[in-house]
Amino acid sequence: MKRALIAIVVLLWAGSALAQAPALPSGVQRVTSVEGITEYRLANGLRALLFPDPTKTTITVNIAYLVGSRHENYGETGMAHIIEHLVSYGSPKHPDAKQEQQERGARRNATTSFDRTTYYESFPASDANLEWALDLEADRMVNAFVEKKILDTQMSVVRNEFEAGENSPAGVLMRRVLSTAYLWHNYANTAIGERSDIEKVPIERLQAFYKTYYRPDNAVLVVAGKFDEAQAAKLLAAKFGGIPRPAAPIPQTYTIEPVQDGERAVTLRRVGDLQELCVAYHIPAAAHPDVASLDLLARVLTASPAGRLYKALVETKKAASVAGFNFQQREPGVAMYRASVRKEASLEEARATLLRILDGVAAEPVTKEEVERARTEIVRQTELSLNNSEAVGMALGEFAASGDWRLLFLHRDRVRQASVEDVQRVARTYLTASNRTVGVFIPEAQPLRAEIPATPDLTALLKDYKGEVAVAAGEAFDPSPANIDQRTIRAQLPSGLKLALLAKKTRGETVTGGLRLRYGDENSLKNRNTEAGAVRTMLMRGTTKRTRQQITDEMNRLKARVNVGGGAGFTEVSLETVRASLPAVLQLVTEILREPSFPADEFEQSRQVGLSRAESIRSEPQIMAGVALARHMNPFPKGDVRYVTTAEEDIELIKSLTLDAVRQFHREFYGASEGELSLIGDFDAAEVQKLAASLLGNWKSPKPYAEIRRPHQKVAAARQSLEAPDKANAVFNAGLRLELGDEDKDYPALVLGNYILGGHSSSRLYARIRGKEGLSYGVGSQLVGPARDRGGQFMVFAICAPQNAPKVEAAFREELERALKDGFTAEEVASAKSGWSKGRQVSRGQDGEVVSRLRSHAQYGRTMAFDADLEKKIEALTPEEITAAFRRYIDPAQISIARAGDFKKAGVSE
Questions:
Q1: Is the distance from CB of 538 to CB of 603 less than 8 angstroms?
Q2: Domain identity same for 601 and 665
């Protein structure tokens, strides 16, 4: 489904929205309203979608220009994406857009796809911030710095992003399949483009492309979050109303891909650790009703564990994983099915099985049970995802690019209405041999054609569409540390489990939570990491009361998301559901934790997945460098719970793992004597506390618990350079051990100093290595100061072309030396304080992030007052204090380096 069919829970009834709406400023017309989202149209053609949500503490502004790789001409592949990078820099009224966004604590990004280019920023809600954001986007619409001097640096940044993608054989194979499936249509080209076009595109062509497509009548602006709709309409008129509509019409593409007349083949040969299969079938445009049935078909075929491809390939160990999804675009797209196959398995056998199942749907019709299960899964994802107006703001731009933003709702309706016969019909129509692209070509005497329907008339299709009745909104919540503490109820169960419960009204009555169980100690957990990880993997694969599929079905019925993870000495369950289902979800989570059945067949499947994952990362530069540096920085003996294993060691440990050992680990360690349960959302705290006591209050841990400590260890500087043959992208990592904890006097100064140096997208490292020199797509630094322990770390990371690795390292060292020698200026310290503080404010507006903070504080006996105190200390810092702290802790001579890439081919030596 389109971005997992990101959906919307609404605030207002659409019919009354038009009737009761306030008067509009001159030049602004109200067009339509669906489920709380109202479309406005300016005289210059700009479409604006306003979605007020008083429960948020943020506003998201997302502008989608209806231009992407589909609109690029010969020699211009990647042009829309390059312009995205240039526009992100700013404009005359906003000469440093990224710095402005950082100072306001905004989360921002820009992306390019086949049909659109989007820019968004999510920031603390205020009239001033909204006015700033709209002013920024209005000025960038026509005045952005599309200039040669910026292109000179950004070309290599985009090329570095291209090279990073070239490191993934599965990703490259997907692009090759697309370029083979399409003979003439530009959907053959993804947004990243071709290297030669990226390197050689003239600035004049970029400027012409920008002027052609960046205009008000080719843009859809979305504002979602906490704002006044009437005031926003006035700002739209003030900021965008004066931008003239160009006299020249918007160029329209007209190429129609001819009907495919036979199976097509593509073979990719590169270095890698997994074999891959990819099959593509042409399908209609997003507006066509068949797309909903195709979404259901994809779930019927690939869902785990009931999907037909999953059963035929994964359960039989012919493949390690399968996937299926649809490219839902403005013009006819493709349905894609993929499988990953271990080297030891037969690729030809997996391919034959994959095609047999896909071809076989025509002869073995889908069942009502399969379709209803798929529908329930999709509806569950829809209803949970639609409770976040920020996500809604992003989704609307995607659907607008597909033809009209209201397709989001229409597609949802069609999924609910599609019949078993509809799903069977689309399988029979589109999943034909003559309509697919795979690894070989097979001629046929009488090929079957798949006629792709024309894109529907959207005006007629959506003329009378109204959508559904809106649901009630939640409360406007103050996310300050003091208010969070005031609203949080803290308690402890007889078992020892601690509770942190924050009840509040939320959109869609959602509840977000986390349960962490901590167990064992350094001695009892020796040589048990693989068993511990296997237990966590197996918990969701069956209980004494339910099979894996029944667990999935129950979560669908309860409208719940439940995930299990963990680490050294702990298991953590994250959950998301709605008020009415919370008691049943907590009961289900308890059942999963306390009563796993550890089925033998599921154990073997999970082992295959684990082996394929371990094998797939052995030649990946990012993993190679990360593991090498982590092993050096954490020199614990083999078998210690904190020991960092290599991929080869993981493979051997997984191969030797037994199901009896997994079952024994659960019996020995699992209990609720130590741990925390934190919940935020729409629930009755007293009822939840009572329920938690009945479920977990008597569950004692079998073995004694002691916190896994990570004390400071002095590590000598070391340098490692690892060869990753045939990988276009390299990775540079650096690390330094610090005798530092989060309660130390110098911790606040080091936090802000790291933020200035490399902790955000306008930092010194980012500005130098990406912005000025164009050496890296991603670069930054991180400071770690643990609670209770003083095993802190300072880390630096960057990706780059192998030949640029020495330049990246030199630039990093120069910026670090400059910081140590010259310190930090009062201006950048003031800006960093503002950006860091507002970023924390945005974080506290996200329930999932607050759940994590409450859980962590409960573990260490803290409250949100700890956060407030840190923020006060940060605000009081002087540049001199930050510089002094950096000089005390950061010693360039003691920094360790680990890098990985194809340095031999690039001619790079130590």
A1: yes
A2: yes
